[in-house]
Amino acid sequence: MFSSRGWACRVFCANALVRAGLNVRVIDKRPVKVAAGQADGIQPRTIEVLQSYGLADKVLSQAAFMIMAAFYNPGPNGIECIGRVPDVTAPTARYPYEVTLHQGAIEGIFLDSMKKEGLEVERPIIPVSLQISEDPKALADPHAYPVKVVLKHLDWESGEDTETVRAKFVVGADGAHSWVRKTLGISMDGEQTDFVWGVIDITPSEKTDFPDTRNKSAIHSVNGSCMIIPREGDKIRLYIQLSNKDAVDPETGRVNLHRYDPKRLLDVAKDTFKPFTMDAALDKVEWWTIYQIGQRVASRFTTNERVFIAGDACHTHSPKAGQGMNASMNDTHNLAWKLTHVLRGWADISLLKTYEFERRKYAQDLISFDKTFSALFSEKIGDDSKGHGPTHEEFIGAFQDYGNFSSGVGVHYAPSQIIEPTYQAAASNLIIGQRLLPHVLVRAADAREVNIQDLAPADTRFKLFVFPGEHTQTVAAYLDNSQRFFYKRRDAFDVITILQGTKSTVNYLGVPLVLRSHWTKVLLDDTDITGSRGGRIHERYGIDRFAGALVVVRPDGYVGTVAPLDKLATLDTYFSGFMLSD
Amino acid sequence: MFSSRGWACRVFCANALVRAGLNVRVIDKRPVKVAAGQADGIQPRTIEVLQSYGLADKVLSQAAFMIMAAFYNPGPNGIECIGRVPDVTAPTARYPYEVTLHQGAIEGIFLDSMKKEGLEVERPIIPVSLQISEDPKALADPHAYPVKVVLKHLDWESGEDTETVRAKFVVGADGAHSWVRKTLGISMDGEQTDFVWGVIDITPSEKTDFPDTRNKSAIHSVNGSCMIIPREGDKIRLYIQLSNKDAVDPETGRVNLHRYDPKRLLDVAKDTFKPFTMDAALDKVEWWTIYQIGQRVASRFTTNERVFIAGDACHTHSPKAGQGMNASMNDTHNLAWKLTHVLRGWADISLLKTYEFERRKYAQDLISFDKTFSALFSEKIGDDSKGHGPTHEEFIGAFQDYGNFSSGVGVHYAPSQIIEPTYQAAASNLIIGQRLLPHVLVRAADAREVNIQDLAPADTRFKLFVFPGEHTQTVAAYLDNSQRFFYKRRDAFDVITILQGTKSTVNYLGVPLVLRSHWTKVLLDDTDITGSRGGRIHERYGIDRFAGALVVVRPDGYVGTVAPLDKLATLDTYFSGFMLSD
């Protein structure tokens, strides 16, 4: 996988694949990694995903947090605060906030993780040609190498500077101007909007008396709109709406960077913030740009499930909704385990079709969300309902309605060979196709609290969460049956058992061995030692305490299916739909 | 500071001093640090202290947790479980559990931290002589070097292998057999008990069916007593009561290691655990020993406040109560900031007298606690009240009564020049002389939750927590007055202001500048974004919302004094009792 842009998607993918023990090469045309760079927003679901790779703590310890969102509207003397609401309005979010962290830090965390597995980015290298075999037999054989890529090493000082690589699969995580996408002849569907925005990273000076520089702030003024995104330390990012006639070159119709500089951007912002003072030293501006919002989705995400595109190569949208890096990382989070299963011989190669199926639908929803949100934000607020743009209530309403989507926790994959919702009723509140709902359990052996999501790390295995109800022996007999799927492909599964009972009285050694491969794998539906967290997961998930249920969670943390304990054979049907038993 | 034993006390002290920017040398007679070694228990208050140095996360991420304590008593067929209770019974503990981690890991965390400040342990080196000047003028002058120590470098291959060091202060953190203590001629007061115990670290095999290997377990059987302390991974430590006639050499009266080996220790344990099976592979035993409990306190902790002893050099007691490393670290936590203030010229040298005053009293209380607990644990449980040892209720009662003490959170320093309780009523629930009660606040600027303890890190500064009530201008005027103590020695203080109000409505920029040196220093008495943590700190601390209060927290996290806002001049009296204003 390659390229300069799309770094987030690329390092995320490379890290996931090398941790799975695969033979990966990752190339980049940049001679070095970014040292600092612009900040990227990280959404609640992305933090959960980072946690599943053991990387959330590293990100959170360096990041700025966005917990509240403040709204300002025009008043008689300039803007005035209308109110503050929680920035994240998704009630099931495990991390009920967004964070921001600069690219250099995020990329560094992934590069460190990859390095522990022995993988480093090769740079500076660019791809110069890519060919996919047309032999149907080779394309269907996971052991074949049907992709030929010619690479050019930019810094080779002498001799042959090109290299031919034969690959089983290639992922083009190469940004909005993706070379891979163009080479595959994949079109981008969508359009450019008329909205032009400036972005500038500043450190407010002591003169600044605007009270919401450390909250996400959405400001509508008679002089245009502005958004504040707090950054690490004392820095903030300003998104500043610009007048099209100033910012767009009338001849080309494209934004004209030369018409702006940091001082002019900040001057526009200063007008917007009146009567508040927004002041910053211009010599400390780390980064600024202006851009026009484009909203496009690639017409397909793969050619023959042998070469894929991911991240900005697949979708472009406005940065203000803070989706960019999140959508990118989640693309490759979705793809990495599927590639791993196919390469290990665990899954049929057709599993890879679900990547485009799941992620293109998501990208289309994202663009649709972005259109609504960007339009609302770029238009003037009317303080009545006379049709002069959205009312304040409409804006906050949209902000909150979309909370579930923009937080990432509402992502819902449609039924497919890996999403089987027939028995949804057996866990009525745990939606099949959505990510595993976070909830605190207590370990039976040592009473330590554990979030159930941390029992489903991104370790490439399917997790079988057994809520045995009164049917412990039924489940144990099923899992111990050598005719069953689980038995034949045991490496691909982890079994976690969730008992009813309390930490004061349980004896977890009474659970059959097939349900407790280690003492850490038996949990209790009980509160933590302080009584303030966890408990009642059966009710939270809608699982009957007598009937129980078996919940299958995919390696990426999404609920794949749920089986009632008197219908366990449905699991053989589910797994044989995409897994290979030998 | 030096020596082989007492490593915990030594690295803790060295780290605290070098982080304060002092010129420190630390010597050790061991050629290398311990690689693994025995496990040490870490109590709730010690975790808080580690957190104040930014080291708690590193310890907790590697440690085993003890959350529940299980009790077993003799029954008709061998031992049976009487019940489980929370291991930590101190309701104010921020970390309501104990953890264990092996010495190598703990020492490594401190060595890494010191190394970042440029300090490494010099080894192998031993002290061979120590002399303190008798010149009263030199002893009273913090800039003088009245201590002369001769060191011997054990690995110098040629030439002169001794070195003479002149020091302002010396800390003998050199373990139970302290060379410094003996050289100063300090006696140990106390006695040896008759109780002999064996200790062995094992990994229970699959045959083991005792259900509480991952809890702290106190077992009384007709064959003797035993205690389980879970360790990292799957390991556990067993403390096993031994028969004196087997374990003690009748001629010397001392324990005789040669009479035991791991197999014999485990055999004793196996008898104790019946009818349960306790089984382990003997070839994997990392560590074992047998010991007789001694309970002693040094008659003094210093000579002329120029040479100090700390940790095991000052107090020895039984390991089962898990106090050893905790008492040691907290000794030097108490001493380090005092040395720092004197060396910086912030405090009068007499401040150092409070070290022995505070820590020797603590050590005496510890021994008293240890005597009661060890006796209870070493005696047979009588299942009636006929005087055959403690009843089960007495044992659990003692376990829970002492929870507050053994957790470390109950430590209460008596009135002195640095503990001034006159105005206790102004914060009636925040006990002057105890550590700052943990409580969650919300940052006014960005609504992020912060535990108030994390606003009082071990950065050598006194913290002034201002609860302004309705008297904001009064406090601001006091702190801005150039005649006041705070003004003259501003580097020694950090000011944190705790407002009433909510994250939805507050404008923290309305607070006078002297009360907000940075946006992170203004907090709210409000709940976190989920509504589940924090809020009502005024009630928690017993501070009137109208009258307010100013709480002074020492650099080691203990409440030094509290001032009503109409009695702020009391702070000048307090600080001038030990601080120098120029």
UniProtKB/TrEMBL annotation, chains A, B:
Keyword Cell membrane: no
FAD-binding domain segment(s): 13-369
Record keywords, A-Z: FAD, Flavoprotein, Oxidoreductase
One family name in Pfam for this protein: FAD_binding_3
Ranges for domain Phenol hydroxylase-like C-terminal dimerisation: 411-581
InterPro entries noted in UniProt: FAD-bd (IPR002938), FAD/NAD-bd_sf (IPR036188), Phe_hydrox_C_dim_dom (IPR012941), PHOX_C_sf (IPR038220), RIFMO-like (IPR050641), Thioredoxin-like_sf (IPR036249)
Gene Ontology molecular function: FAD binding; oxidoreductase activity, acting on paired donors, with incorporation or reduction of molecular oxygen, NAD(P)H as one donor, and incorporation of one atom of oxygen
Gene3D superfamilies according to UniProt: 3.40.30.20, D-Amino Acid Oxidase, subunit A, domain 2, FAD/NAD(P)-binding domain
Keyword Oxidoreductase (UniProt): yes
Annotated family: Belongs to the PheA/TfdB FAD monooxygenase family.
Name of this protein: FAD binding domain-containing protein
Organism of derivation: Multifurca ochricompacta
